[in-house]
Structures are given as structure tokens and as C-alpha cells.
Amino acid sequence: MLNNQHLNTFNTLVECKSFTLAAKELNLTQPAVTQHIQKLERELERLLVVRQGKSIEMTPEGEQLYGYIQKVMKEYRLFRKSWDELPSNDGRVDAA
């Protein structure tokens, strides 16, 4: 199973287009961001990004992963919206 923190790091890296800016956004060190991406790449056995000076460019595999992450995030937002609209209870669980 893919590590959610590594997926979040990848998503932030793509959006920031920079390891340094992603690290600032995530309140991590730049080496930690690098490690997350490397671990994700090793687990998936694919190169996800290519450094272009101080910027990055996604590989086709990186683009596919980014699309997947966007779908998952959209589904999560839909779930939270529907969940938050449920009537609240008092925390008791009915005995069967």
C-alpha cells in the first residue's frame, strides 16, 4: 500500500514545482521531501519527476500518479461534504 504522506508530498511537489517550495509548504526539510519522492519511486519502480534546474517536470508515470491523487482527493472531498451533512448524534451507539 502506498504511503499517504509520500503521496501528499508528491502532490505538493507537483503543485509547487520545486523541492524547496514543497518542503516549506509541508514544513519539512528539502532532504525529507527528496526521500519521500525516492521511496515512492522505489515502491512504484518508476521515475516520477525529473529535476530541471531548480524546477521539476513530471514523467508520464508521474502525470498518471498525479491524476490518480487528484481523483482520490476529489472523492474524499465529496465524502466529507456528504458526511458533514449527516445529522449529528449524541455519540451513543444503539445496542443490537
TrEMBL record:
Keywords: Transcription, Transcription regulation. SUPFAM superfamilies: Winged helix' DNA-binding domain. It comes from the Bacteria. Signal peptide: none annotated. Residues 2-59 form the HTH lysR-type domain. Gene3D superfamilies: Winged helix-like DNA-binding domain superfamily/Winged helix DNA-binding domain. PANTHER family: HTH-TYPE TRANSCRIPTIONAL REGULATOR, HTH-TYPE TRANSCRIPTIONAL REGULATOR CITR. Belongs to the LysR transcriptional regulatory family. This is LysR family transcriptional regulator. It comes from Marinomonas phaeophyticola.
